[in-house]
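Sharing a chain and its predicted structure for anyone who wants a worked example. Both blocks are below, sequence first, tokens second.
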Amino acid sequence: MKKKDTQEDLQAAENFFKEVSADVHNDNMKKLWDTYGLQIIIAIAAILTVAVSFETFKAWRTKRAESWSDTYAVAMALQNQGRFDESMKVLKQIAETNDGIYGDIAQIQTSNILFEQGKNEEAIAILEGIINNQDINKKMRDVTAVKLASYKLDTAPREEIEALLNPLVEENGSWANIAREMSAMLAIRDGNMEQAKALYGEILNTPNLSDGLKLRVQDMLSVLDSAN
């Protein structure tokens, strides 16, 4: 693979993460994940293979990605039909036989099904297991941290949510602004409006901020100002 092509693929993957980050909101996290789950796998795969030759990656993609993505698509179809037990069996098979990205994504999707069934403790346990497993790819753990924080935002103690979001803010990576936004919502939940304003201000000062996120933050600041 030419160096230019590799750089373009990596840039496309990074741009995808930025686009997803800009659109994430706690109220639509599940919908977002269901929509972008497979694309997230592909984007992460592209980033992870930066040091791999084109022929090696092509062989891996042909042999592995197509079969696993097809299996994952079957699990998604079963879930959409409400056939949760069957879907979870397929996802369990993926998780147990694939020790890479597809195994990780299968665990996250399993948590989605458990949340739909009201089995929140089981679902949260799966997500926490992913976050605490250092053998799992960092970007996948970051995605999981945002997802878990979105489910805990309304009811969990502040310390639990901050433990998930603060590392993302400090790293100042793809998920930093969405972590700041969720931290601002946490501050609002706890009645700390000044902290919320400060966090929204940090977001607005971010270079190359997307128009969608900028408008959302400006709207929230307007609401907070009018409430004083």
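Comments welcome. Confidence is low (pLDDT under 50) at residues 1-6.
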